[in-house]
Specification:
Blueprint (H helix, E strand, L loop, with lengths): L1 H24 L8 E3 L14 H9 L4 E8 L5 E3 L4 E2 L2 E2 L5 H4 L13 H9 L6 E6 L6 H17 L6 E5 L2 H10 L4 E4 L6 H6 L4 E5 H6 L2 H8 L3 E5 L4 H9 L4 E4 L2 H12 L1
Parallel strand pairs: 1-2, 1-11, 2-6, 6-7, 7-8, 8-9, 9-10, 10-11
Antiparallel strand pairs: 2-3, 4-5
């Protein structure tokens, strides 16, 4: 009997391990550097940061789709770039009040939960590039947004699909403190790759002009095995320069153009 129980437990354990293993090896990100900025919104006239723009980035097989997370007055995490939505200050307005107003395509204002679930559905190619916006109320509230975002990503088993980005260094440090395995990229542009490496940040995602001013940072980032990303690159000439410079990611409002370029360079 004991042997039977032992064998059954071992089998259960093995099954559990193989399930975990499967979910790890299942993720195969698209081998292009294209991160759709606020989703692939422009060509089809979708609203920025809408679920339609996220699904379009996934349909295009972009390697990433970026979106912005903010927290309402009653602590709901929602997706919106600006601190205001329909002239209402997000941090000082409840989710119910905000969500009375639809996006221009008729979608309701997405919560982070809805957005992540839409991004996880039938998708193993496109990273979910989650920007945590700093709070206008306090640094501490920004860190709370980080804590809640990481907790939700974990709950939905989306950790392997998610990259965290922020202009706020404290927010990224908070993310790493909670989940040391989290992939993070800093946006603000004033920290050297050496500094990012020392602080455990995985990548530099800077405005392309920062890399033009500090070309040595590209080699330094490669030396430290940091991820190189640049925003928001919409012209062909800058795309070509970044591709030639070996950037891992390029964040753009023109994902179709960049996909066409990278497909051509592979041939
Ligand atoms: Mg953003």
């Amino acid at each position: 009997m004991k042997a039977f129980i032992f064998a059954s437990c071992s089998l259960l354990l093995l099954t559990a391990c193989s399930v975990t293993q499967k979910s790890i090896t299942n993720v195969k990100f698209a081998k292009n550097p294209v991160v759709a900025h606020r989703g692939a919104f422009k060509m089809n006239g979708f609203p920025e940061n809408s679920i339609a723009s996220l699904r379009e980035a996934i349909r295009l097989k972009c390697t990433g789709s970026e979106f912005d997370v903010r927290m309402t007055a009653d602590d709901s995490l929602i997706i919106n770039h600006d601190p205001h939505y329909n002239k209402l200050e997000i941090e000082k307005t409840s989710y119910v009040e905000l969500s009375q107003y639809k996006l221009s395509n008729g979608e309701k204002l997405p919560t982070l939960r809805e957005y992540l679930l839409a991004g996880l559905a039938d998708n193993k190619l496109t990273r979910l590039v989650l920007e945590i916006k700093p709070s206008g109320i306090s640094k501490e509230r920004g860190k709370l947004v980080a804590e809640r975002s990481v907790a939700l990503v974990k709950e939905l088993k989306a950790a392997l699909m998610t990259v965290y980005i922020s202009f706020d260094y404290g927010i990224l440090k908070k993310v790493i403190e909670i989940d040391p395995a989290a992939s993070t990229q800093y946006l603000n542009g004033e920290k050297s790759p050496e500094q990012l490496k020392a602080d455990g940040i995985a990548g530099a995602d800077y405005h392309f002009s920062v890399f033009k001013k500090n070309p040595g940072w590209i080699e330094q980032a490669k030396k430290y095995k940091l991820i190189l990303n640049a925003w928001t690159v919409n012209d062909a000439e800058t795309m070509d320069w970044l591709l030639k410079s070996g950037f891992d990611f390029i964040t753009t409002n023109e994902p179709e153009l960049l996909l066409e370029k990278t497909a051509r360079s592979v041939k």
